[in-house]
Amino acid sequence: MHEQVKEVLDAYSDGGFTAMHEMDLPFPSLTAVSAITGSAFTSGVLGHWVLTQCAANLLKAFGSPDLIAKYHEPLTDGRWTGTMALSETQAGSSLVDISTKAMPTETPGKYFIKGNKMWTSGADHSMTENIVHMLLAKTPDNKISLFLVPKSIVNDDGSLGERNDYTINGVNHKMGCRGLSNCYWSLGDNSDGATGFLIGEEGKGLHAMFLMMNEMRIHVGLSAALCGKRGHLESLNYALERKQGRNPVTKEKETIVNYADVKRMLLTQKVHSEGALALCLLASSLADSAKTSEEDKHVLDVLIPIVKSWPSEFCLEANKWAIQVLGGYGYTSDFPLSQVYRDNRLNMIHEGTHGIQSLDLLGRKVAGPGFPLLIERMAGCVERAVKTGDDEIVPMASQLQSAVERLVGVTKKLGGVGKAGDVQLMLANSHDYLNMAGTTVIGWLWLEMAIAAKAKSSDSSDSFLHGKVNACQFFMIHELSKTQHQARLLESLDDTVIKTKVEEL
Amino acid sequence: MHEQVKEVLDAYSDGGFTAMHEMDLPFPSLTAVSAITGSAFTSGVLGHWVLTQCAANLLKAFGSPDLIAKYHEPLTDGRWTGTMALSETQAGSSLVDISTKAMPTETPGKYFIKGNKMWTSGADHSMTENIVHMLLAKTPDNKISLFLVPKSIVNDDGSLGERNDYTINGVNHKMGCRGLSNCYWSLGDNSDGATGFLIGEEGKGLHAMFLMMNEMRIHVGLSAALCGKRGHLESLNYALERKQGRNPVTKEKETIVNYADVKRMLLTQKVHSEGALALCLLASSLADSAKTSEEDKHVLDVLIPIVKSWPSEFCLEANKWAIQVLGGYGYTSDFPLSQVYRDNRLNMIHEGTHGIQSLDLLGRKVAGPGFPLLIERMAGCVERAVKTGDDEIVPMASQLQSAVERLVGVTKKLGGVGKAGDVQLMLANSHDYLNMAGTTVIGWLWLEMAIAAKAKSSDSSDSFLHGKVNACQFFMIHELSKTQHQARLLESLDDTVIKTKVEEL
């Protein structure tokens, strides 16, 4: 790791931000703080601490008192970092295919682990004195279980003991996210196995992981949203200063922010990134309330694939436009735009690819109780918007209403195809469905923001508040309207993709 | 430069490929050969030799016999490379604002040049013994003129003489296209000026450059198309081998090419990159026939902003999906996908940004004689398609016909707004217009390909030929249909972007 990454991480933990996660603060507050600290250095700050926090949470939820006593505190005070070691070379999206084996020893809860892991973020570095891996492996009966595998094993007196037997075999040379290492490694090459401690029960590994999954997927969406917003702000700053070309009337050199196409690129970034951020804050809030409200839990379930995916695709698009505002300068490392663009490209891939999220949404989630509840909440927003009687809000209420109706219609039609037994046809264009559902949800959140802005002040000269209303209008006209095309495609049950022969690709 | 770049360039010129440009071959043949050689290493091969060839062509077209004798041959036999030195720090898209000055000397045609240049591709390297810059500077009467500025000045006996007085001040650290340096440099810091030789007449610099512009813009489109096609082939290879997850019926490990969403990603890449390549070949052909046909010249004029832009935007999108097919592997340098993605991002920027191309198309070109001719040619294709009476072709003819009618309608409506004096409103959504026109043109070329494939064989088991028909169907249903949404937006004369206040961005 570049030595400056350690400086950043130290500043983060010295500032008390790692401890923040232990303070029982509302999740949306954590998300909001992460948004500010993380946007400065998404892979370095957000990457390391999200992983560490997830590892700490898993340990606290399922670990034995002895393991918690030894390993939990250093993960939460910023002394150590944590990882999630799930994938293997042959098992990325398909975790049931992992081949790493865990053999029980005579000591209860202690196992010897042999095998290999791939794509482990933060798997090794020298920035902290210990690293704690949360690792999936199969016990002899082939059950997938969760283990704590420390870099250095903690002695009973709390001191650091022997170095565990695993070997970092290499670093994956990623296009971006260079503030966080990513390694392939093998366990137990030089012994009976690396030492691992069972977390929870044997065979409950995937179950435990899935409890973390929602949180991790919100963080991926957040990371994408932050890259989007960072790009928006950096390119806006540039556009406000850069002069190029001539004003057609005055013939003076023109500041580029005044050109229509530059405004389009900035507005696109604004609606994508602020819409995505609103979605992440909503999901964070639901993750809290889901603990006491079954309804909120169901709504969150249906939103999760959207939270993971929509920001990842559309804030990458936003970063494309951020570079474009700067022209050649955006393509160089003199400005941070090419970095956020490279960083952001990862978010469509990790924690479940787009394709997998779209199958989760259309093939599973929308058939559950969360979907009608989500529709109800969107319809409630439409109703409140109409009641404002506001000249700018009411037309947008009707745009959202149409989009929600389209989503309901398409979902019903596709659900019918699935129920009739043709699951393959139902899922043939699931990526378009994911985008359509996501764009509708973001349209809803923009309308909520516009209503809130208007409620604060209807004075259109308040540029922050009216900027929200204006951005909402832009989203409705330029983005939400695309769901018409998507709905038509989905309702036509087009089977071009599935009928395409492999040799014709 | 990495030393392997020189090996590649040497192999290219040793193979006689640089000489190819002097053989009066049809331009489409050159494009086709460049497509094969260039796709292996777009920035290194295509970048260096397109620039060198453009420099050689400019010299041949406008240079004095003495300059041609001294500088032309080494540019065409691969001994030297050439550059186009246009932009300056304050003058990127707006070349009239350049400030580099050229003072005449006592020797006719010889000038002393002082100033600076920015974004010069291939401005310096040690791979060849000389570099020849085609450089724009202003003569004392403020006229923009074109100069040949050699790195080493050629003596009368043909030997290399003194090193010219310019200084490379730095390299622009680009996100991609690392096979081609890009520098900022200053001329005449240590003397009365760097030596430059006038090419053509004083004040005719931009005119000369514009004659090269069409060719350079076709090459940008080609470069984007090649990145797209390279990504398609690499990700197809991977998808044919990689196993992940289970077949829902057999429960065996499944090769990922069989998943619907992977097929979608491969088909999207195929239609974007092969459509873009067809467009570049058409434009190359028109560039030849334009020399004898006024009509072809007009059609080429209207196509040029599309050739430059559509491949650049949609083949970048294709590369996004190429990475996605590989998942995490696509994000690493173990595979070439992240490289082509980084490389391709430049194409939306250089040789006139997207924004500028869209103004050129909608604000100028479609009002000229080329647009009705283009429409006529597309209508002719529809007619031929209908006449085939083929079950697969006829429905696509009707899809294209609707799209062409939409384009005509939108163009007429926007033209009317412009004629009524509201140019700002006409151009408010010019980027959407550029995409709509481009997608319609690519739809046309796909239909041409499908007709040609069917004419060769209507046997659907010929997977190459029927793959073209199938890809055309995919394009019509999944891509061309988007022009409905774009047409609605454009016809609504939406002014959200232009009415947005700068403080609301």
TrEMBL record, chains A, B:
Residues 84-185 form the Acyl-CoA oxidase/dehydrogenase middle domain. This is Acyl-CoA dehydrogenase. It holds the Pfam family Acyl-CoA_dh_C. It comes from the Eukaryota. Keywords: FAD, Flavoprotein, Oxidoreductase. Its cofactor is FAD. One of its GO terms (molecular function) is oxidoreductase activity, acting on the CH-CH group of donors. Residues 376-499 form the Acetyl-CoA dehydrogenase-like C-terminal domain. It comes from Triparma retinervis. Residues 203-359 form the Acyl-CoA dehydrogenase/oxidase C-terminal domain. Belongs to the acyl-CoA dehydrogenase family. The keyword Ribosomal protein does not apply. InterPro entries: Acyl-CoA_dh-like_C_dom, Acyl-CoA_Oxase/DH_mid-dom, AcylCo_DH-like_C, AcylCo_DH/oxidase_C, AcylCoA_DH/oxidase_NM_dom_sf, Diverse_Acyl-CoA_DH.
